[in-house]
Amino acid sequence: MNLYLIRHAESVNNARFRDADVVDVSLRDPDPALTSLGHVQAQHLAHFVAHAAEPYAQHPHDEPLLTRLIVSPMRRALETARAIAERTSIPIDVWDDVYEVGGMFDIVGEEYIPRPGMARADMQAIIPRASLPPTITEQGWWDRPAPETFAEAHERAQQVADRLRTYAAKHPEERLGVVSHGIFITLLLRVLLGATFNEPLPAYFYHNNTGITRLEFIQPHEIAVHYTNFIGHLPGECLTY
């Protein structure tokens, strides 16, 4: 199985804090939408996926790059995936375990306030044909009283890695895309590649907005890395982090 890890397009928080010398957390959106540039990036990504424009590809070029797409339940990931949904007919599933490290929370003063995340109907309004797990309800999907710790996120990455290995064993010909988030993708890659967990992390995998990393599952615990942070689908003026 080939796995394509895709970071979401530019979000409001990305744009707001990218060049800030001091981050004003009171301006942070707990579940930000895409910016206008982010929507443009998502369209470039969708065109790339729909037309199988990947270099050195080992799949038919008259088919979409992906055969199935997994999406984080966070708004920025869903809005990124919507562009792909509009240009292809591939199955799309929301997984509630590929969200960004920390989960859903707001910061008021020095207090962390949990937020429930998007309701089921709101997700379906973004991607009507997406399959959602029963854990996503009209009350949202996040019900923890505190933000997720880095150690907890690493444990979640291990669980997702096991889920992906099981899926790869059952679907060896699949080309599976996962629209997720920068820090979680780093944790997931480190787990898949056998790196030990240390806090703070000694190394990160850099991903631009809509950057793609491709892995190939050869055996359950044997993985080939074809490339990381591919951004060939984006024109220069659309590159952001």
Keywords:
single chain, 241 residues, alpha/beta, Rossmann fold, six-stranded mixed beta sheet, two-stranded antiparallel ribbon, 6 helices, 30% helix, globular
Overview in brief:
With 241 residues, this protein is an alpha/beta fold. It has helices spanning 12-17, 36-50, 75-87, 120-126, 150-170, 182-192; strands spanning 2-7, 68-71, 92-94, 105-108, 111-114, 175-180, 212-219, 222-230. The protein is 30% helix and 18% strand.
Characterization of this structure:
With 241 residues, the chain is α/β, with parallel strands linked by helices. It has one domain (2-238): 3-Layer(aba) Sandwich (Rossmann fold), CATH 3.40.50. The chain contains six helices and eight strands. It has helices at residues 12-17, 36-50, 75-87, 120-126, 150-170, 182-192, and strands spanning 2-7, 68-71, 92-94, 105-108, 111-114, 175-180, 212-219, 222-230. A six-stranded mixed beta sheet has the order 3-2-6-1-7-8. Strands 4-5 form a two-stranded antiparallel ribbon. α2 crosses α3 (75-87) and α5 (150-170) crosses α6. The longest helix is centred in the middle third of the chain and has 21 residues, at 150-170. It is globular, with a radius of gyration of 17 Å. The two termini are 28 Å apart. The mean pLDDT is 93.
